[in-house]
Every structure is written in structure tokens, then in C-alpha cells.
Amino acid sequence: xxxxxxxxxxxxxxxxxxxxxxxxxxxxxxxxxxxxxxxxxxxxxxxxxxxxxxxxxxxxxxxxxxxxxxxxxxxxxxxxxxxxxxxxxxxxxxxxxxxxxxxxxxxxxxxxxxxxxxxxxxxxxxxxxxxxxxxxxxxxxxxxxxxxxxxxxxxxxxxxxxxxxxxxxxxxxxxxxxxxxxxxxxxxxxxxxxxxxxxxxxxxxxxxxxxxxxxxxxxxxxxxxxxxxxxxxxxxxxxxxxxxxxxxxxxxxxxxxxxxxxxxxxxxxxxxxxxxxxxxxxxxxxxxxxxxxxxxxxxxxxxxxxxxxxxxxxxxxxxxxxxxxxxxxxxxxxxxxxxxxxxxxxxxxxxxxxxxxxxxxxxxxxxxxxxxxxxxxxxxxxxxxxxxxxxxxxxxxxxxxxxxxxxxxxxxxxxxxxxxxxxxxxxxxxxxxxxxx
Length: 437
Known about the structure:
The chain has 437 residues and is of the alpha+beta class. The protein folds into three domains: 3-224, Rossmann fold, CATH 3.40.50.620; 237-319, Chorismate Mutase Domain, subunit A, CATH 1.20.59; 331-428, no CATH class. The chain has 14 helices and 19 strands. The strands form five sheets. A six-stranded mixed β-sheet has the order 3-2-1-4-6-5, sandwiched between helices. α2 crosses α7 (164-174) and α9 (209-236) crosses α11. The longest helix has 28 residues, at 209-236. The chain starts with a helix and ends in a 9-residue tail after the last strand. The relative contact order is 0.08. The model has no long low-confidence stretch (mean pLDDT 92). It holds the Pfam family TilS_C.
């Protein structure tokens, strides 16, 4: 079966997608993918095709690539979008460039659209070797999946079963032109070293090394699928609703996890954390043990790449985004008929006919008291303890004052407004996702 037929078969489940977007660097691999799809589109009913070129600006040679990509796309009749990105200074330039590139892809994808990238079997073998040398676990050694969610759409790698040699042969046969990235030959970069120094030595002794390495990655993907199924079973008992349905944070009940072996705990947490953050290496899992085994009255924190895992009142809570910012500041509320945006802390509104007077939103400093009918003045700290509100929420919980009198505590029944129910103080907390806050 030729490349076109194999590509079409790979993409068959995605023929109803609203659009196919091609990640087009201008290099050989993505040029072959673009050419194949443009030819298929002339005889097949495919979703609308377009290309995206990410310009990192990391080297002078790259300044000419957008113009080259424009010409190739114009010749093939494929619209092109050029996105300029800033690459953060990082110890790993490869990783920083990749993160910037995929952030731009995510911003470019609309609902259910598909991004097609041109990684092939040799790339899969390099990925397995690279991650093996970094001490990756099963999830990392499973290599690159054929498809995965990306932003509001999907990422597909339809050429993963094809070799680099096949793509090169097609490019020469079709007379294609492409750009050569000078950095691809710089063996200071780990992947380039594997590609130019290690894999040639392996294939000289084991000619099928690339094929067998890619096959091993497939076996490990299957093993990871079984581990994911086990994780789902183990998490089922822990994914109970919290006592605070208004708190929009991922959380788990701790007790069901404690009944599992240590290995199954780690497997379940890896599965749960994978959509939320980069996963820690084996040494940093000591942070989970410290959090798990801390004294009952403690408030332990496990800091990870994109956020923090906290333990409070028998639950694990994931915090990121605005939840990691400093404590919010007091604000006047001049018109309580209108919702009040709390910078970095969501939104506040009054339900019902609110109080009059000079209102202000404040936050806990210590020593606050609230007048409750039939109970007199009660210490706020004790009231929050009675409500079993997680400690990390208490410093962000809006308090409504008139002059120096505490009138209400947002969202907590019995504390969020007068007993007769004329009005209630409703807080919409920030989400973990900065874009959704």
C-alpha cells in the first residue's frame, strides 16, 4: 500500500472533523505530509485543509522559512497561518521551544479541529531511547500516541508507521523542496545526538533496530492502557463530591487511596494528575509520601510543575493558576446591585435585596467575629472550623463589611446573609485554569 493510501486509512476516523490543520515547519517530514494531503484533497472529500507555521525566531536562517512555506502552500492551494512565538529562556531550549509551539497550536485550534503532525517511526524510536535514558516510566516509554486531545481539538500523528526513508523517497520522487534546519545537526541537543551518533551505530549492528524500538513503544502503550484502566477503577471510590460544590477544584477523597498499595496509589495519582501537570520523576514522589503521612492536623503541600497538591479534611485538592497567587486585597463595593470582580479571586454578587451603607469586601486577618441570631457574637475562626472549610480557602473567602461590622461570610449556609433570608452573599471562586478564571 502506497503512502497516500496508508495515510487515508489512518485518517478515516477523522473525516468528519470540521477542519484539518497541518503543522508545517517547512522541513522534509511536514512537506511530505502537506503534499500528500493536498493531493488527496483533489480526489477525496476531506475536511478543509490549512497549514500553521510556527516561527520561533531562534536563529537567523529561520527568518526565510515563512516565505518558503508561503510559496509551498500557495503552489498547493492550501491556506497558511504564520504564528510568531517567544521562547522562554530555559535550561532546555528544546523543551521551551516545544512548549511555545504547542501553546500556539492550542490557541489556533477551534472546537473538534484536528492538528496533523509529521512524526514518523524513526522519531518514535528516538523518543523511546531518549526517555529510557532519562529514566522514564511506562507512561513515558509508551512514546508518542497516534492521537490525543489538544486544546479544544485533537492532535494526530498519521505517519507514525512510516519510516524516514519512505518519506525521503517520496520527497525525491515528487521533486519536493524543503528547508534544512541547521540546528538539526547540532549534536549538543540530545535528540540530534541520538539521531546522528547513536541510532546509526545501533542499526549498523541491528538493521531492524528502529522497527523493534517502535514495536516496544507500542507494547508499552498497551501496558499503559491497562494501568490507566486499573487507575480508573482505583479512583472510582475516591472521586466523591466534596462538601463544597461551589469550590471548582479537582479533588479526591483520601481514605480510598490509603487502602491501596503504594504502587497503586502512585499509579492512580499519575492518571489523575496527568491532565493537570507535568508528572514528577521517581525521586520527587517522596513529596506524595510526606503529604500522605503528615499528621492529621497538618496542612501539607506537594509542589509540582504546574501547581500544588494539598491535603485538607480528608481530601486531596489540586491548586494552580490564581489559587497560587498572593492573598487578595480588600475592595470597596459601591454598587452591590452589580457583581464585583475580585482581581485574582473570582467574582462576588448579592442575591436578593442587599444591605445599605458603605460596603467593603475584606479577607481574614484574624480576630473577626460575626453576630448570629440566638448565638451572639461568634469567633469566625471557630465558625470556619465548624464548617470544616479547607484551610487554603479561608484566606480567600470574601467577607462583607459595613463600616467595621462583619455582615456575612460568602457561600457558607447560616453565615452568608441574615437569618430571614433577605439576601445572600454568593462567591464564584477562581478556577484553576487562568483562561477560565
